[in-house]
Automatic annotation (TrEMBL):
This is Unannotated protein. Keywords: Membrane, Transmembrane, Transmembrane helix. The chain crosses the membrane at residues 6-27, 34-55, 75-90, 102-119. The keyword Transmembrane helix applies.
Length: 120
C-alpha cells in the first residue's frame, strides 16, 4: 500500500509542477494564454489527490499508530483552489489570450496551494 501511496504522491507532485510550469512559461509572453498542459496537469493532481486521500484513510484504518488520519480541512481547501484553477482554465483554454488578472489568479491559487501543502 505504501508503494501505491508513493506512486500517487509522485504523480501528484508531477501534476503540480506541470500546472506551475505551464502557467509560469507565459511570464515573458504578452498576451498570455492558458496552455492545455496546465489543465491536464491539474486533472492529474486532482485524480492523484483523491487516490492519496483514499490510500491515507486506508493506511490510517489499518495502522493508526504509524499513519495519521488525513486532514480533511486542508484537503478541502486545496480541493476548492484546484477546482477554481480548473474552472478558470477550462473557460479560457480555447481563447487566443486571457487577461493578466485571470492568469495571475491561477498562478496565485497554485502557489497558495503549494504553501498549504507544505505548511499545514
Amino acid at each position: 500500500m505504501t508503494l501505491a501511496r508513493n506512486i500517487f504522491l509522485l504523480l501528484h507532485v508531477i501534476g503540480f509542477i506541470g500546472i506551475i510550469g505551464a502557467l509560469l512559461s507565459q511570464i515573458p509572453k504578452n498576451p498570455k494564454r492558458i496552455l492545455g498542459g496546465a489543465m491536464h496537469s491539474a486533472l492529474l493532481s486532482l485524480i492523484s489527490g483523491f487516490a492519496l486521500i483514499g490510500i491515507r484513510s486506508s493506511l490510517h484504518a489499518s495502522d493508526p499508530a504509524n499513519w495519521d488520519a488525513p486532514d480533511h480541512t486542508k484537503v478541502g481547501i486545496k480541493l476548492i483552489f484546484l477546482i477554481v484553477i480548473l474552472v478558470l482554465g477550462y473557460k479560457n483554454v480555447k481563447k487566443p489570450f486571457v487577461s493578466t488578472k485571470i492568469w495571475a489568479t491561477m498562478v496565485g491559487l497554485a502557489l497558495v496551494n503549494l504553501v498549504i501543502a507544505m505548511t499545514l
